[in-house]
Structures are given as structure tokens and as C-alpha cells.
Amino acid sequence: MRRIADLACAGVFLVSAPLAAQSFNAEAEARFNIGVSHIREGRYDMAIDAIKQAIRSDPKNPFFYKGLGTAYAAKLKWPEAIEAYRRALVLNPYYVDVKNDLGTALVLSGKRDEGKSEFLALFSDPTNPTPEITARNLGQAYLEEKNYGEAVNWFKTAMARAKNYSDPYLGAADAFLGMGRLEDVISTLEAGLKEIPDDLRINLTLGQAYFNAGRFSEARGRFEHVSRHDPSGPVGTRARELLRDFPK
Hints:
The protein is mainly α. It is built from 13 helices and no strands.
């Protein structure tokens, strides 16, 4: 079972908090905002150039370094991303969002133990505003390592912190699938759907699980629901593909 979310991640599988901007120097802020726009439009080289110009005008702004790290991460330039995130933390050691970003970059660069240590420290940090994201990141790191039991533990921790956060349900379903526990896949996704009934990714993935379990009428119902509610998006497109191949 491949989660539809994977199709939109461009190789970056861990969650980070959104970019933030803060007014210090008007010219620097303007250049930074241009860089953020380039990131959103996928123009990462232009983003890097714009944000570096902002940093030259205001070299002590940690938000700028976070943005620079994000642009480098989008290009899979992990050493440069790690350096930028660490610089942001030197300027503001309490910038906890960047600690999620740093852990992400370390894991994806191959420094998995170091990255997981960053996540563990951040999860225990009482100033962390999004411990559910940190727990999910740990779960995803263990999932990538095929340590399915530990992945499930962290995904469940994330669920306990935020019941309306869809990623942990999807991650735990992937981990249970890796263990060959299809009934646990289904029960996890059904629990997620009770909390977030309108989440199309959970609906689609549950439909795929029903299909794999031979529960074809329930699978069709999930696919049709997703298709109706996402007529032009990637999740709806995948649902329609599955419906076209559905057994008669």
C-alpha cells in the first residue's frame, strides 16, 4: 500500500513547521519574502540567492537561516541545510521549529542516529509547541528503518497528542502493513476516520486496505467518496484510477 501523501512529498518525508518571517530590516525582509515566494513556486536556486541577499543585509536574523535551510533541503543539499539550521539555532537557541527541521535534515542526510537524538531532545522540551509533529517524525524515521514496532509506538504517541492529525494514522498503518498485520492497518485507519472523517488521504488508504482484505464493496465506497470530494486533485485522481481497475 503506497500512501498518496508520498506522491506529493518530493522525497522529503518528515514534517516541519512553516516558514516564519519577522520585521528587522525592511530591505532584508523584502528580499526574504521574495525568497519565500520562490520556495513556494519551486524556484529553489532563486530562493537561495534572494535569502542570501537578505542575510547579507541582516546577518543576525534566525528566520532567514531557517528559510535558507528550507531552500537547500528542497534541493536535497543536506550539508548546506544542516549548516543553515544550526546557524539559526546559534542565533536563537529557543527556535524549536528549526530543531524539527534540523532533525529532518540529519536523518535524510544519513546521520539517522544524530537526527533521532535531535527529535528525542525536542520531544522532551517543554517549550516545543508541536510535540505531535516531533513524535510523528520519530515514527517516520523508525518506519524508514523498518523498525516497525518502535515506529508504531511513536505514531501512537503523536495520535495521543493530537487526535485530529492525520499523518500518524497513515504512518502507523504503513508500519502495521510492514508487519503483515492488515487488520491492525484497517482498525488504525478506521480510528483515524472517526477523528477526521473528511481526511481524503485516510479515506483513500482505508479503501486500499479494504480492497486488500477482500472487502470490495467497502473499498469501492471509500474510493467513490474520495473521487467525489476531490474532483481534480491528486488524491481524487488516484481514487479514480483504482475505480477504473476495480473488479467487475
